[in-house]
């Protein structure tokens, strides 16, 4: 036994115990640091949600970014950061985060949905269709009637009217909705299928009697069909429901023309 070994053995047992704890702490440091980062990321994420609830977009985005920096492989944090960027109009940043989320999880329905909405905003209808379809072909879509509605709008904007109608009808099978009825009616009107447009709008105003735009569009179709009493009734309802809207202004013009004295 050499002098160094003898000196080490001569150390007090308490000191040896402390040295042992230091080595354990050192070897376990990486795991401990990782757990700490995950915990901090969760805290930052929750803070971001809190700022979002009070509509502080700047702080919400900052906290989500901190969460992503601490835990970059977390799909949920990526998607929320992308949504924050989207709200602020940072389309490039939003697209990047949604794509990063898909690299983490290629079945991320929310990332596909949000990419679809982003491409809709940009008028990139081909990519909007692709991403909405990716969402819908995976099980568990939240409020699928909305996604079918967005998909239909994308098809319609491509000029693929038959596919658009098909998607709107699927949406209505899932949930009868006044706004979707209006979209379908406008598509029928665009194709000069006025009977179907009128039918869809009548159902829209039954579902939502205070839906001013649906009343306005319906009144125009009644004018086209020379059903003036019906047209007047719906124009007046538009004015009553939303007196300061553009629809109300146009409704007043129509009423002036319809009700002007005849010589």
Question: What does this molecule look like?
Answer:
It is a single chain. This protein has about 260 residues and is an all-alpha fold. The protein has 3 domains: about 40-105, Tetratricopeptide repeat domain (Serine Threonine Protein Phosphatase 5, Tetratricopeptide repeat); about 125-175, no CATH class; about 175-263, Tetratricopeptide repeat domain (Serine Threonine Protein Phosphatase 5, Tetratricopeptide repeat), CATH 1.25.40. The protein contains 15 helices and no strands. The chain has helices at about 5-10, 15-25, 30-55, 55-70, 75-90, 90-105, 110-120, 125-135, 145-160, 160-175, 180-190, 195-205, 210-225, 230-240, 245-260. α9 packs antiparallel against α10 and α12 packs antiparallel against α13. Residues about 1-30 have low confidence and may be disordered.
Named at the architecture level, the CATH assignment of the largest domain is Alpha Horseshoe
What is the CA–CA distance across the termini?
128 Å
The strand count comes to: 0
Order of helices and strands: HHHHHHHHHHHHHHH
Overall helicity: over 70%
Tally of discrete structural domains: 3
CATH class of the largest domain: Mainly Alpha
Low-confidence stretches: 1-30
Structural class: mainly alpha
- Major sheet details: none
CA radius of gyration is 30 Å
Counting DSSP H or I runs of 4 or more residues, the number of helices is 15
Characterize the overall form: elongated
* Overall average pLDDT: 88
State the CATH superfamily name of the largest domain. Answer: Tetratricopeptide repeat domain
